[in-house]
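Worked Example 4.2. Read the sequence first, then its structure tokens.
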Amino acid sequence: MRENACRIKNSLEFYDSVVYAVEGDPMLYSTFLDLYRYLDCKVRFIPGISSINAAAAIFGIPMAEKDEIFTIIPAVNDYEYMKK
């Protein structure tokens, strides 16, 4: 992944910006996260419909209504990874 991040960074020498499009959420189970760790340039996210909202809409399941509280808690198998 570091090689791909270098390609993106090197492209910035010739272009004002580079686009990396992802399906779903760029910061949730995305291939972009593998690259993001190696980029040392300005990154701008252009949000769309999150995959969580899209899934709820497809299945017709409300995520929260009225006074309900909706919380997303990340879960991982390796908690040491989250400390880095």
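Now turn to a second chain, presented in exactly the same format:
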Amino acid sequence: MSDKVRSIPRPLVKTNQWVIVISAVLTLIFAEGWFLIIPLLAGLSGIVFKYNPIMNIAKFFLKKKPEEYIPEDWEQQQFNQKIAVFCLAGGFISFLLGWNIAGYVFTIMVAAAAFVAILGFCIGCFIHYQWKMYQYKRAN
């Protein structure tokens, strides 16, 4: 068993969060769900193929070695990405179906969560922690 913990440099996580926020804001300003497709496809790729193109492009702009940045837990970020993809997909599909209110709700939720994460509080991390505590309590 390996003792190495998988991690992602914080600037790459922040870049991904900013792309989500900017896409969501553009969606809200222009009432056009197609702006959500970029973070949605990048997030799906990250979950399914373990390759997030946004983060991989952002790697080229790092000024230090990746391991010199504050690390973000890879497993936690995968959990957060699943929540973001769910909301992005919900917003995108809702807009495609003409369910604009649902589209706005999903888009505002994902934008708010990503922006709050940029500011320092990770809603996905809080949910993940509560879920793990529930599982632990149920098992013991």
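Notes for the reader: Helices lie at 10-30, 37-48, 53-59, 74-96, 100-119, 123-139. The CA atoms of residues 91 and 107 lie 5 Å apart.
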